[in-house]
Amino acid sequence: MSDIRYLPTDTNTLAQRLQSAEKSITFIQREHASTLANLHEEIDKWQQKCSDLTFQLAIGGGTVINPTDDSKLRTKLEQLENEIHQCKQTINDLNKVLEEKEKSINDYENRFIVNERKHGLELRLELDKQRQLKIELEQRSTLIAQLTNQLHREKQLQQQLQNRARLGQMILPNKPTKFQSASEVQQKQHLSSAKQLSNRSSSLSNRASPDQDLTKGLLIKRRPPTPPQQLRPLSSKSIESNDEQSYTKRQRQLLNTHAENIDSNKVTSFRPSIKLSTVLPPIVNRKVPLKALPTTTVQQEGEV
User: What is the C-alpha separation between 22 and 35, in angstroms, rounded?
Assistant: First the structure.
C-alpha cells in the first residue's frame, strides 16, 4: 500500500480512477492475449516450414543447401527468437504492471471501506445530534407553550381585576379605583365595617322609649326571671360592650366570607344585612328605661 493519503472528499475521484484502471487492465490483457496468439501462430508456421524443409532435405538425398539460404533461415530464426523474447519480456512487464494495479486496487478498496465506515460513524453522530436537538426543540416548544398559557392566564386575571375595579367604581363611586394588595382591601373594609358598627352601637345606646311593659315581655321570652335579690341596674356602658361584642363576631363572619369570595375570583356585588337581636336588656337611666327595638337591618355595601 502506498503512503499517499486521500481526504474523505476524494472518494468519488478515487472510484472513477479505479474504474479507469480496471478498463486499462482489461484492454492490456486483451492486447497481450492477441499478441501471444499471433506469436504462437507465427511460431507454428515457422516450425511447420522448418519441418518441411528438413523433410525435403532428407528426401533430396543429401542435397546441399546454399549458404545464402541457410543464412537467411538462421537470421529469420534469430529474429523470431528475439521477437519471442521481447514478447515474453512484455508479458513479464505487463504482469508486473497488473500486480501493481491489483495492489493499488486493493489499497483503494481498503481506503474506500475505511472512509465508508468513517462516513457512517459521522452520519450516526450527526443523526444523534439532530435527534438531541429535536428533543431540546420540543422541550423548549413545550416550555414556551406553558409560559404562553401562564401569560394568558395572568392577562385574564389582570383583566378580571381591572373589570372588578371598574365595577366597584361604578357601584361605589367614592371607593378608590384600585388597591395595591388584597390585604389593603381587607383592612379598609374592616375599618369601614368597624366604623359603621360603632356608629350603630352609639345610636342604639342613645335611644330610649317609655314602653316598659314591652321590654319586660321581651325579657321574659329571652331568659328566665331573675330573683329580686339579683336584679341590678345596667349601665349604658355594659350594653354598649355587649352590642360591640355581637357586632365584632358578625364582622368577623363577614370578613371571612369576603375573603372566600375574593379567592374564588367571582365579581359580584351584594349588600349583606346585619340583623340585630330583637330583645335587648333593659337600660335603666335616670329618666326612663330604653324601649325594646324591633328587628333592624343594617345595610353594608361591599364588593367581592
Answer: 20
